[in-house]
Fold these 2 entries.
Entry 1:
Amino acid sequence: MTVLVNPKALSDQKPRDFKMLIDGQWVGSAESSALIERVAPSHGVVVSRYQSGSKVDAERAIAAARRAFDTGPWPRMTAAERSAVLLKAADLIAERSEELAYLDAIEAGKPIAQVRGEIAGSVDIWRYAAALARDLHGESYNTLGDVTLGVVLREAIGVVSIITPWNFPFLIVGQKLPFALAAGCTAVVKPSEMTSGSTIVLGEILLEAGVPAGVVNIVTGTGPEVGALLTSHPEVDMISFTGSTGVGKLTMTNAAQTLKKVSLELGGKNPQIVFPDADLDAFIDAAVFGAYFNAGECCNAGSRLILHKSIASDVVARIAELAKSVKVGDPLDSTTQVGAIITPQHLDKIAGYVAGAKRAGAEVAHGGETLDLGMGQFMAPTILSHVTPAMAVAREEVFGPVLSVLTFDTTAEAIEIANSIDYGLSAGVWSRDFDTCLTIGRRVRAGTVWMNTFMDGASELPFGGYKQSGLGRELGRHAVEDYTETKTLNMHIGSRTGWWMPRG
Ligand code: NDP
């Protein structure tokens, strides 16, 4: 079922103007008065205007972050003090959650009810990071003999560049920034040029919460201009990047010139492997949710179903039936389940994948077409059956509401298909048999494997990819440690003998 978007909902509103945050000040670009205009993908009207930041702006932001790290109070505070600021930030995020949800909904085309859940999830992550801040510690070795004591310190790594994509604008910055801040780092954040609004509001929140000037800087602008500088500048110590695998590789290449630490969360083409003994009612719902949540513009999308041959045709028919009831339309309608596609160009790319799959022999079991809802750009929830492992739609990230169905006979074949691509972000297995679930769970090469569920998450559980899905892990109890260096203090007790003398 689909609904029309309400063309009047946004057309009467003036676009919201945003500045950049550099060294505690709200500023325009030093070089350009040009603005980046964001057109709502659901309504086709300009809803936000951001500063078109330049390399000079990025340099100023890096210099501010460097100063704040080298001489400012933030890294020198007690963890308890930093934790209190992060907790205050979490409270303020909760207070402004409706404003934040609205911004992500109109800028990214995401259903408002879904974004409300993402903001609530972010509040939990900020609180979790605040708790971890106080538990950050090193190690001591009192076992090295009478004259030696070893202490391993954990020190904040320094200035971190944080680069985020458009699909979960507020959630993803929240998987990075609070952990960097908990460790005592300072940061320059570059949000996607299409969805910068909620990140800029986060800047307001952080200042109000007590984050000192220069600790968090937000520079808007394009990837090749601002992003590239943030990944190559010698004064940056670490990069935390979420985005496409292509730009992730570029980031690593840039970082290699000055050997920065790099954390990468990249693409996925995640399989759900389904056995005949599975709870199929639960799975059908999870298949539809996994494929169409966030219009499939989700690194964790369950975009590849690998079904046992004996159940494939029945399962495809049931998913197609449920897909008919998915509500596509106005992101501001709180009953909408699938919103708009991020840009017209991206819609063309998704439609191109569907056309290519049909040419290669896949069949459309449901959807397959773009939707004309009177404004913006939308795609019908789509199921492609008779997909083979060699097809592009089975191997590449479509990043749209397109589900590809493949089949298997044996467990070994299912594992081989699952592991046959370059990505390894997440996977799902459905079976009532414990051995089957554990075998798949251990053999599939992915950072997360869901068993009899899909796309559940918690702040405590690490998230990240194998293979070309990324490097490093976010969330979980070690997330703060990722933003630290270790330093060894090797201490001698008493008088020391010369190097030619036996040590005692
Ligand atoms: P991109 O890689 O195109 O962009 C991500 C960010 O990188 C944006 O802020 C972008 O800037 C910036 N960027 C672009 N070019 C450069 C460059 N040369 N140097 C430095 N930064 C640059 O990804 P998308 O925004 O299109 O996001 C979708 C992708 O993100 C998908 O592939 C998806 O799988 C992945 N993703 C991964 C997640 C994970 O955790 N594994 C989670 C969510 C998404 P701008 O676009 O503003 O110019």
Entry 2:
Amino acid sequence: MSIVDAEPYAFTFDLASTALVIIDMQRDFVEPGGFGETLGNDVSHLQAVVPPLRSVLARAREVGLTVIHTREGHVPDLSDCPPAKLTRGEPTLRIGAPGPKGRILVRGEYGHDIIDELAPLPGEPVIDKPGKGSFHGTSFGALLEERGITSLIVTGVTTEVCVHTTVREANDRGYECLVLSDCVGSYFPEFQRVGLAMIAAQGGIFGWVTPSCAFLSSLAPSEVPA
Ligand code: C5J
């Protein structure tokens, strides 16, 4: 077992039953010139997540942790998108509209894919999700069950939307979630701060929070190949 210093108290996990989950590190959210920036957001807050997350991903691969990536988006005919979401917002910025990196939140478009720095390796599952949470309308839950995963190390964007929704869904399903504070990002610094505080509040109401350096140093030397 590994133990990490965390809020609100130490998080214990076993590598064999733990997955690193990387949520929606997609070009349209993270890169300059993407959909996120078109909405008026400052993407530098999300780009700051990339270097620490790359280190965590590299170490996770070294120690043989299960790595699961997710992408938010819809099938090209938008048949998996509820009308209430399709008609929301300014018409040129709606789901399916043409965006700077392809149709907004549509699978197969350039902007929908994961940034090169965190590209999945062959064999690493990529869960395409039509919603904010990773369980809704996906095989994520079945995959975790199949692999005997009970603990999730959660990273990605955005903290208060897809990360929060996934952690809440996972918590209700009995998974233990550790959120790496510098490996999740929000366009809004106040949402980042409060979003993280909410997870660990009240004795860990949804989960645990810790910086990536604590997680990395928790991996016992015996678990790192020579
Ligand atoms: C948003 C996400 N913010 N991945 N998506 O719409 O958090």
